[in-house]
Design brief:
The chain has 276 residues and is α/β, with parallel strands linked by helices. The chain has a single domain, classed as Ribonuclease Z/Hydroxyacylglutathione hydrolase-like (Metallo-beta-lactamase, Chain A), CATH 3.60.15. Helix content is 22%, strand content 24%. The protein contains 7 helices and 14 strands.
């Protein structure tokens, strides 16, 4: 398994390859990162967690269109301007698309994946086209958490009771995200007061919520990803951090919690590889 930056993971076994939220660096001469040249010729399944601009990236999907067997997307509510159909969008690009409802299973050679619930991060709007994923591949189970939040830990207890304990969990911790109107103003049918917009943010898990997710899933390893820190993401991200940033402080607190609870953990940046 390889980390390609932001929310992009490539999971490989002798039977299949899975990619998540591809946002690939196009600079094949760059060092310290994986690029298109490091991808296999065929990708069986591409998982899209949600429709935000850093997770469904047209430039990367068009580059990979000829390599991907099917794209799995969460099903939208239908008829809601702020919850457009990802399936219609990608089908119009000529891609084979599978829509998955919550807890719907999608088999692939040598493994299976299950769409699991995605809480938070969408400014309290009624958006259904968002999904985390539980992937079983090569003898391990992997939770793809994207930007979801642990606002209700009991949910992940139900995920574990339904699917079993998780070996590795990947979590986004952009826990002080942009206000509602930064992303959704053009899709709303009436004006939103600034006070309301500022109180309804596009935020993922903080340290306590991330710890709750790991605990309830029974994960033995946990990795923070999808923070928008890679240098090639700047043209679509409104993210910048320094040592005093609340998000980075929360990540350090979470990593400290993991160390105290014997959970192998890391804060991912640029690239990483796991073998088993």
């Amino acid at each position: 398994m390889r980390y390609f930056g932001h929310a992009c993971l490539v999971l490989q076994s002798p039977e299949a390859t899975i990619i998540t939220d591809p946002f690939i660096s196009g600079d094949s001469t760059a060092t310290g990162r994986y690029t298109y040249d490091d991808l296999p010729d065929h990708i069986d399944v591409c998982l899209i967690t949600h429709g935000h601009q850093d997770h469904i990236v047209l430039e990367s999907l068009l580059q990979l269109r000829g390599r991907i067997g099917t794209v799995v997307v969460p099903r939208s509510s239908g008829g809601n301007l702020s919850d457009p159909s990802l399936a219609l969008y990608l089908s119009a690009l000529g891609m084979d698309v599978t829509e998955a409802d919550i807890f719907e299973e999608v088999p692939f050679p040598g493994g299976r994946l299950v769409a699991t619930p995605f809480l938070g991060e969408h400014a309290d709007l009624d958006i259904r086209a968002k999904s985390t994923y539980w992937v079983q591949l090569a003898g391990r189970s992997i939770f793809i958490g994207a930007d979801s939040s642990g606002v209700d830990p009991a949910l992940y207890r139900h995920v574990r009771s339904h699917l079993g304990a998780t070996d590795m969990a990947f979590l986004g911790m952009e826990c002080d995200g942009a206000p509602l109107t930064w992303l959704y103003q053009a899709l709303l049918t009436r004006p939103i007061p600034k006070r309301m917009s500022d109180s309804r943010k596009l935020s993922g898990s903080n340290a306590v919520q991330a710890a709750d997710i790991v605990t309830e899933l029974g994960a033995r390893e946990a990795y923070v990803y999808a923070m928008g820190e890679e240098s090639w993401l700047g043209h679509v991200m409104a993210t910048s951090y320094d040592e005093s940033s609340y998000q980075l402080q929360q990540i350090e607190e979470f990593l400290g919690w993991c160390k105290a609870h014997d959970v192998e953990a890391g804060h991912l940046l640029n690239q990483r590889e796991w073998r088993w």
